[in-house]
Structures are given as structure tokens and as C-alpha cells.
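Case study 2.
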Amino acid sequence: MSVPGTIRAAAVLWWINGIGFGVFCIPAIREVAAGRAIPIVMGFPAYGHGPFERVGLETTVPLLLGFLVVCVVEVVAGALLWGGSTVGAIMSFVVLPFAAVYWWGFALPFGPVLAIVAVALTVAGWSALR
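Prediction:
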């Protein structure tokens, strides 16, 4: 059975989230580990100055590494979804609450939007998963 477009589109959205946010974690980790300020990306601080800091949780290397792990899981879930795997769908649902905490804490508004659409597409194509 071929993988429907809804599932493939969901996979792409998970890749966009995982790669799009994950790629900026690497320079942020490097800068924070060296004791420097969070880098500015497209005019915004990369993973700093958001609600985490307002509640007293400073951006640290372990916090950024945790987010990087979440991003990697999103990419892996997307790859499995692309192949029509139910495991990929389940992974994307399981990682979602963890990702949501980081999206909120780092004030990343696009993550939830893409995730809502990805979840809806996955649910719509669920019957075609194996």
C-alpha cells in the first residue's frame, strides 16, 4: 500500500520543526558552553529571553541539549512517518508534549502551528499506516 499524501505532508512538517529548530541549537550550545550570550538569529535570540527565563530558568547547555534531543526525535518520527510507519506516528505524538514545553519556554510560535497541522494530517491518514 502506498503512503498517502496526508502522512507524507505530516512527515515534512515534523522535519521542518525538527531541523528548523535543531540546527540553531548547535551554535546556541556552543555559545552558552563558552560563557557567551545566546546568538541572535534573524533578529531574535536563539532560545533565550522567553518564558523560561521569566520563571527563573536560565538557558543552559543541558536545557539546549534536551531541546536538541526533542528535535532529533521529531526528525526520526518524520522519517518513519514518510515510510508509513505507525511507530513514526506514535513517536510524533509522544514527543509532542516535550516539544510543546520547549516551544513555550523559548517563545517559539511556529512549532505549535506546524505540529497541530501535522497531528491533524496524521490522524486523517491513520488508516493507511502499518
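Residues 66 and 78 are 19 Å apart (CA to CA).
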